[in-house]
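Renewal narrative, Specific Aim 1. Our central claim is that a sequence can be written position by position from structural information alone. The example that follows is taken directly from our test logs and has not been curated for this report. It begins with the structure tokens describing the chain, in the order in which they were read.
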């Protein structure tokens, strides 16, 4: 499952106004760790499709940099879980599919 790319113009509607929790994957095309994490992140999106949303923000592009700065993203990959328009959990660096799923369920 390919994840939906969210930009500055779609972030509010897709993430902040979402009725379900949203896992936002901040990544960049030049980030090797981000590329290694992508299959696991896509699996999370598939596994939780009925109860949460998983999207990605390319922090290496202008359309994603402003969002990354706004939420204090300083290293990639960074995963932020939003619920009710608020950032509730942040996970930075390599992690597992199971840890991401557990964090979303906890939110």
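The sequence written for that structure reads:
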């Amino acid at each position: 499952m390919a994840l939906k790319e969210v930009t500055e113009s779609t972030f509010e509607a897709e993430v902040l106004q979402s009725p379900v929790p949203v896992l936002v994957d901040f990544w960049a095309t030049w980030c090797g760790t981000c590329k290694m994490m992508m299959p696991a992140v896509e699996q999370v999106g598939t596994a939780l499709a009925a109860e949460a949303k998983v999207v990605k923000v390319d922090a290496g592009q202008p359309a994603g940099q402003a969002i990354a700065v706004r939420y204090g993203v300083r290293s990639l990959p960074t995963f932020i879980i939003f619920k009710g328009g608020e950032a509730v959990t942040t996970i930075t660096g390599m992690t597992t599919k199971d840890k991401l799923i557990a964090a979303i369920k906890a939110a």
